[in-house]
Amino acid sequence: MNLQEACFLGALVGLGLVVDMLVRRRNRQPAPPGPPGLPIIGNLRDMPTESSWEKYHAWCKEYNSDIIELNVLGRPLVILDTIEAVNELLDKRSAIYSNRPRMPMVTELMGWDFNIGTMPYGSTILSLTRHPTVLQAVVPGKYLVDTFPILKHVPDWMPFATFKKVARENSGVEQEDGGAGSDNTVATLAGFVFAMLSNPEAQAQAQSEIDSVIPNGDLPTFEDKDSLPYVTALVMEVFRCSISSPIGGPHVLQEDDVYKRYRLKAGSIVFANIWAIFHDEVTYPHPFSFKPERFLKGGKLNPVQEIYTVFGFGRRICPGRYMAFSTIWIAVASMLATFNISKVVDKDGRAIEPVLKYGNSSSCLPAPFECAITPRRPDVERTIVMASTVN
Binding site: residue ranges? Predict the structure, then answer.
């Protein structure tokens, strides 16, 4: 053996020792802290049945950690409690945190297997999100069948019938995702109404801003958005306070990983506690108070990027997040321009205090509550009818 071969062999042995040391060190690293579980079932009996986000946050404070781990029937559940943990794992390391767990009830029994939100991360979802097939399909002459419609009857195996495969792969996209986000939109608007009941001064300030920009009583448009910073700040505060999905969607860790000094096992289901992120006292002082001005600086919008945290993270972030925000914005601005939202009074003239209650589903639609919605002006009906006719 010559010197060069000996050096090469020594380098291989050294590399092997380093790899072995790193593997051993990783295996010695502890799992994230969490409540002790029972044999076999783990923390199954500890899982909260309501307001789970508050319980998870309480555990994080108890263990002084921004990450905790629960074990349910042998499956690790990891909860991320801060924006720092979320950005590090779900965003920066999204290559190994973008899969979804298998959910037979949702995907197989309920038929949501073609829903982008629940679809496993892989070639299928990448092809649907990276290639604007639907937009291509409406370009005249893009596919031969558009020029010769009779070709839609040819068998799939014909060499020029590739358009049938494209159509088959994308036929469910619009149908399955047509209502995507509708529950969250309703939940957010319900949260807005409740916020106006509890914060009439914020409602009055937003209405005053609208009246100063749109003096003729017309409905706001998107062109008015830059002139309505307080309204936009109010919408952002609604998203922060009335979180339609307090716990983010599940992410499956595809390989072993280490965060800080904690070992995370492949196959762990990772959740982000969005509620905890939006109630962080450092980023949002007085987090339980409704304060649109927290998003303003010198009377101008001072947006906090984390407000879009409500729409997910990394490669699984909601692709329609900007449209969703715009939809809520125009709905809120239009309601503020035309209606007053106030508490209902009883027969004795006393205001009935509304109570906001949430369930424990992924989309938290508030339980029904009473409110009074009255037109601000006699011509409100005419304004709405004219706007709907124009549109």
Answer: 318
Whose tokens are 């304060």? That residue is 291
Bind-site residues for heme: 318
Summarised one tens digit per residue, pLDDT across range 20-40 is 455 545 557 899 999 999 999
CA 117 to chain centre: 10
| Cross-strand pairs, 351 | 345
What pLDDT does residue 363 have?
55
As a whole number of angstroms, the distance between CA 175 and CA 180 comes to 10
Give residue for tokens 């989309």.
363
Helices (H) and strands (E) in the chain, counts: 14, 10
What pLDDT digit, counting tens, does each position of 343-378 carry? Answer: 998 888 888 888 777 655 555 677 788 899 999 888
- Residues sharing a CB contact under 8 Å with residue 360, sequence separation 6 or more, in sequence order: 48, 49, 50, 51, 52
Tell me the residue length of the chain.
391
User: Strand pairing of 269-272 and 75-80?
Assistant: parallel
Within its chain, how far is the Cα of 130 from the centroid?
20
Residue 182: predicted pLDDT = 63
Nearest to 99 by CA among 75, 74, 73, 118: 118
77: β partners: 70, 269
- pLDDT the model gives residue 132: 47
- The Cα–Cα gap between 325 and 313 comes to 16
The burial of 280, by beta-carbon neighbours within 10 Å (0-12 exposed, 13-18 middle, 19 or more buried), is given as middle
| Average per-residue pLDDT for the chain | 78
What is the structure's pLDDT at 383? 72
On the 0-12 / 13-18 / 19+ scale of CB atoms within 10 A, 36 is exposed
pLDDT digits (tens, 9 = 90+) for 63-109: 999 999 999 988 999 999 999 999 999 999 988 998 877 655 444 44
Ramachandran region, residue 317 (left: φ > 0; alpha: ψ -120 to 50; beta: rest) = beta
In the structure encoding, which two tokens stand for residue 363, read together?
Answer: 């989309």
Six token digits for residue 35: 């409540």
* CA distance readout (Å), 100 to 62, 87, 237, 300: 29, 18, 30, 40
pLDDT digits (tens, 9 = 90+) for 237-251: 999 998 888 998 889
